[in-house]
Specification:
The chain is mainly α. It is 77% helix and 3% strand. The protein is built from 5 helices and 2 strands; from the N terminus they run ααβαβαα.
Length: 144
């Protein structure tokens, strides 16, 4: 069983997945900071600082001044605002990730086009193949 486990771990796709998860965790911190520290303040500037996180309904019928006070009192609350803020943050993060992936794909495509041009140029610089030369000789002999 230990040998099977070792073989499983040694497979390339498992190691690739592990690296992807580690990079993904580090990337999550970067995107979260980008959204929370740079994008959300700009959005708040244009929306007048609207923050839905304070929007809640107390399910015990009491009135509380804030969500924190209601939660501190142990009241059951329906925190609609937190859910809306989570959706907004998700959409922002998804859009930022989309832009980053689009940028990486554009860079990758440019690199592939450059490699293709280099390969095409190398093909142009090469002379005819042995088969091509023999076919030309054959055709020339048939005409003579």
């Amino acid at each position: 069983m230990i040998n099977e486990f070792r073989d499983f771990i040694a497979r390339g796709n498992v190691m690739d997945m592990a690296v992807g998860i580690i990079i993904g965790a580090a990337f999550t911190a970067i995107v979260t900071s980008l959204v929370g520290d740079l994008i959300n303040p700009i959005i708040a500037l244009f929306t007048g600082g609207i923050d839905f996180s304070g929007w809640f309904y107390s399910l015990d019928g009491e009135t509380y001044s804030s969500l924190a006070v209601a939660q501190e009192a142990g009241a059951p609350v329906f925190a609609v605002g937190n859910f809306i803020m989570a959706i907004i943050n998700f959409l922002i993060v998804a859009f930022v990730v989309f832009l980053l992936v689009k940028m990486v794909n554009r860079i990758k495509e440019a690199s592939e086009r450059k490699e293709a041009r280099v390969e095409a140029k190398e093909e142009e610089q090469k002379g005819p193949t042995e088969l091509e030369v023999l076919l030309e000789i054959r055709d020339a002999l048939k005409k003579a």
